[in-house]
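dumping this here before i forget
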Amino acid sequence: MGGRAPSLARVLLRRLVAVFALAFVASCAVFLVLARWDPTVAVEESIGDMAQELALAVRPEKDGRLALAPGGHLAKYIADESVRYVVIERASGRVVAQSRRPLAEFTPALPASGARRMAFSIVTPAEDPTVRLDGFVVERDAPGVAVLAAVAVERTHFWHFIAWIWEELVEDVLPVGVPLLIVTLIVTAITVRRTLKPVAMLSHQAGAITPRTTGLRLDAVKVPAEVLPLVSAFNAALDRLDQGFLIQRRFTANAAHQLRTPLAILRARLDGMAAAPETTELKRDCDRIARVVSQLLAIARLEAHEIEIAETVDLGRLARETVAAMAPLAIAEGRSLSLDAGAAPVMVRGNSAALADALGNLIENALRFTPPGGTVDVALRPGATLAVLDRGPGVPEAERARVFEPFWRGGDPRGAGSGLGLAIVAEIAAAHGGRALALDRPGGGAEFRIELPQIALPLPRADQALAAQ
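structure:
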């Protein structure tokens, strides 16, 4: 109706990704703004390299005076009109060489014990306030060639700022920031998943709660404080539901138990009456009511888990005994029974009386719907499956999910059943860890199955094997 519910982990992850992305962009912006106003960061390293080459290109001439002797690459670089430079002899302050457009008045003085390399960035309001000079001052302190060399490049404020931002992003920020962001997102995803793991465990526990396992409760240990009130409220609701189920089961069991005695007295009085058609009908109705009461009591006991699943049951033997017990009923109704149980034993863990009752209910149901003169087939299939097949009208596919519900009689044309027999079969199968199914029988009719978990036969001991030989 409302579409698929959003994943809490995905919502948290998307929001954290957005927060981290915004924080990353904001930190980059702050870094760039601060770097713009920090000359030691903002000035390009290539300008400093040129200043270093300029200082190294100073040579003493024959008369002892210093002169600039630039090579091809350096000469081409300083010939650019946007490049300004100056070389000053440290001892005398004499300008050894300078560009056509002077730079000396913009060159900051190095402190006496300062760094041997210093960046600077200044505006030239006297010439053009939109032009900025970004440069480096390099000191070369060698015998006979102690000089200061300064190189500055003219930049237009806006476009230079854009170019500088791009250069900083590509060369400095992105190589470090992008991997860091990816690692942060991966760690965040893992953290979110692990943080929500208790919620997933609670969902798994809640999914295991069924009408047969209402005693289970959600584990409140190691649950986040934000989720603990929900867990407590859920467990409290289960307590109330469990109490309601218990009251209902007790009422059903008590009512069925209390009805058995009056019905037994009524049957005894009917047996003491003279034979008559009305008496026979009353006896039949009394037996039918007693059957319904017994079935109600059986369902109440099954729902209360009062049957003990502790025996090792041979399904083949159980099927043979049950078919033998049901044979007189089949003969009395003009039908026959067949059994295919195989020779190999098929063992399950269960309650033999309850399983026999379930198989008997299936056979009784099949006899009711099989036409007179027909045969009800009972088979033990591989995998601990008991199957009862009839030649009746079958079960429509739309009704197969409801056929095992209590008091549901569907399209029973004869109205003879109470609608509890198949419900008892389903309860017994579920109590044994199995299930009951209704299927179509090839060629017409229905097939009812009880599928149970099979257990392996114990291997014979060595002394038993020798004795058998």
